[in-house]
Design goal:
heterodimer; A: mainly beta; Immunoglobulin-like; four-stranded mixed beta sheet; four-stranded antiparallel beta sheet; 2 helices; flat; B: alpha+beta; three-stranded antiparallel beta sheet; about 15% helix; elongated
Chain lengths: ~130, ~150
């Protein structure tokens, strides 16, 4: 098996998918558009999630990563037929690694009109610290 | 020449790096990263030159147009019907570091002929605009019962 893994690295991905909380099957997902801004005290993350309501949004903050799952709240009524389509029904999935750079206890999130704004306060360890010379 | 971000070893890369030589594995994640970067703006309609994705549906009474327009104020969205075309226009003022930024998005959609121009309604919910356009009476299927004597 190790030989196979070394030849085809993608085979080694399976454990990552099956570990942790990923028991649910999201089906096909798309990565939403997002923007990260950095301030002195926190990172600001803006994610566009059109058609996602508060109830269908799931934000999981782990020690080293942030996972945002947005499910589409709206589904096409049965008697509606499609004339033309550009959007997708795929759920939104965004996974960002932060390597312990944020304080996950103080994350603040706000969803309005399909735009999610997250404030991610920096962890004490990475804030610039001034050291006084004695 | 582009800036390549350094990635700290994570759960995903560690066991892989333990086997094999690592060069191949690094290439694989690098290709993933390139694809992610290239595709990041495609879905959200940001790199589409002021356009946004629009869907059209119909049932027996109405035609529905749904547009993904996240993060707009209701009064910044304009819906117009002119000469058989539905025009959706949305503007956004965002506060950037270098003054305010003005963004304008618009789309025009040719409407089917059986749509009537009055009685059009629009609703904006969770970043999705839904425009409901009623069909003309003669376009609706009619049920005529004939009494057989």
């Amino acid at each position: 098996m190790n030989l196979i893994h070394s030849l085809i690295p993608a085979f080694n991905r399976a454990p990552v998918v099956s570990s942790g909380h990923r028991e649910e099957d999201l089906g096909p997902t798309v990565q939403p558009h997002y923007e990260i801004k950095e301030a002195d005290e926190a990172f600001g993350l803006t994610v566009t999630l059109p058609g996602v309501t508060k109830e269908n949004l799931e934000i999981t903050a782990e020690a080293d990563s942030l996972r945002i799952v947005g499910k589409r709240a709206w589904s096409r009524p049965k008697d509606w037929s499609v004339i033309y389509r550009e959007t997708t029904d795929a759920n939104f999935l965004l996974e960002l690694d932060h390597d312990n750079a944020i304080d996950t206890d103080k994350v603040h999130a706000e969803l309005r009109d399909g735009v999610l704004r997250l404030s991610l306060p920096k962890a004490e360890a990475i804030k610039p610290r001034r050291i006084e010379v004695a | 020449m582009s800036y390549i971000r350094y990635n700290y070893p994570t759960r995903r890369s560690l066991p892989v790096a333990a086997f094999g030589r690592g060069a191949w594995n690094g290439l694989e994640s690098e290709i993933d990263r390139l694809f992610n970067a290239a595709l990041a703006g495609v879905e959200a309609g940001t790199n589409t030159g002021g356009r946004f994705p629009v869907d059209a549906y119909q049932d027996t009474h109405n035609v529905y147009v749904r547009a993904e327009l996240p993060g707009f104020k209701r009064d910044a969205i304009k819906v117009e019907v002119v000469d058989g075309y539905l025009t959706l226009e949305a503007t956004r003022e965002s506060e950037a570091e270098k003054g305010s930024h003005h963004a304008k998005f618009n789309r025009s959609i040719s409407l089917p002929e059986d749509v009537q121009t009055d009685g059009i309604t629009a609703a904006y919910v969770d970043g999705v605009l839904t425009v409901t356009l009623p069909k003309k009476e003669e376009a609706k299927p009619r049920k005529i019962s004939v009494a057989v004597s």
